[in-house]
Amino acid sequence: MRLAVLGMGRMGHALTERLLAGGHAITVWNRTPHKADDLVAKGARSAATPAEATQVAEVTFMSLADDDAVREVVSGPDGAATGLGDGVLVDASTVSPETSAQVARAVSGRFLAAPILGAPAAVLSGDAVYIISGPHELYERVRPAFEALADEGHRRVVGEDPTLAATLKLLSNYLLLSGIAILAETIATAQAVGLADDLISDYFGHLPLVAPALRNRLDDMVSGDHKGWFATRLGAKDLRLAEGLARAHGVPLPLAEAVKRRYEQAAAEGWGDADIGAVVELVRRGRTGSAADGAISGAQQRVG
Predict the structure, then answer these.
(1) N or C, which terminus of the chain has less Cβ within 10 Å?
(2) What are the Cα distances from residue 121, in Å, to 11, 12, 118?
(3) pTM score, two decimals?
(4) Distant-in-sequence, close-in-space partners of 214: CB < 8 Å, separation ≥ 6
């Protein structure tokens, strides 16, 4: 198929690489030039605007940072909606259900939401899970592209309402981010009482109470490198969206408020681009005060 991918962050880059490996013709666009030069060298074509990319594609994927970026790339000057024609727009970004609904209207219903559960590495290996919602006939048109991304067991088609996938992704990220915040406190406490790092990693790495999605960050949180892909600033953004979703339906989330503040604080204290596991440093800093500053500074240098 003729495909386009808008957004060359780590996830968009991984999507493109996986689709190229599946034999599809890919056009890429990114706001910052040259972020896809390696993909162009592998056969992708670069477009100057989202409209130009969508004009040559049967299906256009988006992977962007937040709601504002999605709305601008779709509806702004030379946006994707301008060039889409009869094509299908697939949004893999993590956004609010309201934004999914707005985008669906902007492209006259030719829209599927397909946020991703998993890291860019999981996209490359075919192990990521795609939560897909939107008109079934559009999914059937797009199916060859999804088959290149993952097998059927990794594609969760949840209904024809385009907002369903965004809702489920926000709730999933709420579970993940809350779990990471609790694991951070657990690790910091284990280290404070003098447990060896290798014992902490081995014990909690095999404990059924620690979910696999948390376990894969365990060593990083113990060591303090925080070189993962899910930035704390984006974690804070997703928690704000989850909290807003619940509030809009009359459900207070006091735990979400507390967890959100942790990620916002981590981002404000210099960990904004570090992986979400960096919230452990807030616990360490609270425990050891200035004595932790040197360790935190060293870990920040390793991330940067």
Answers:
(1) C
(2) 9, 12, 8
(3) 0.91
(4) 176, 179, 180, 183
The candidate with the shortest Cα–Cα distance to 93, out of 121, 110, 72, is 72
CA dihedral (276, 277, 281, 286) positive or negative? positive
Could you report the per-residue pLDDT of 95-130, keeping only the tens digit for each? 999 999 999 999 999 999 999 999 999 999 999 999
Hey, what are 216's tokens?
Answer: 């894969």
- Provide the β-strand partners of residue 45: 27
Contact 199, 222 (CB under 8 A): no
Q: How does pLDDT run across 168-185, given as a tens digit for each residue?
A: 999 999 999 999 999 999
The amino acid that residue 188 corresponds to is: A
130, containing H or E segment: strand 129-133
Q: In this model, does residue 303 exceed pLDDT 80? A: no
Residue 158 has phi, psi (to 5 degrees) of -105, -5
Q: Which residue has the tokens 């477009």?
A: 47
Q: What are the tokens at 66?
A: 């937040």
CA 114 to the chain's CA centroid: 11
Per-residue pLDDT band at 225 (split at 50, 70, 90): confident
- Return d(Cα 54, Cα 15) in angstroms, integer: 16
Half-sphere CA count of 4, side-chain side, radius 13 A:
26
- pLDDT tens column, 7-45: 999 999 999 999 999 999 999 999 998 899 999 999 999
Domains of the chain in sequence order: 2-160 (3.40.50.720), 168-303 (1.10.1040.10)
Question: Buried b vs exposed e over 126-135: b needs ≥16 C-beta within 10 Å?
Answer: eebbbbbbbb
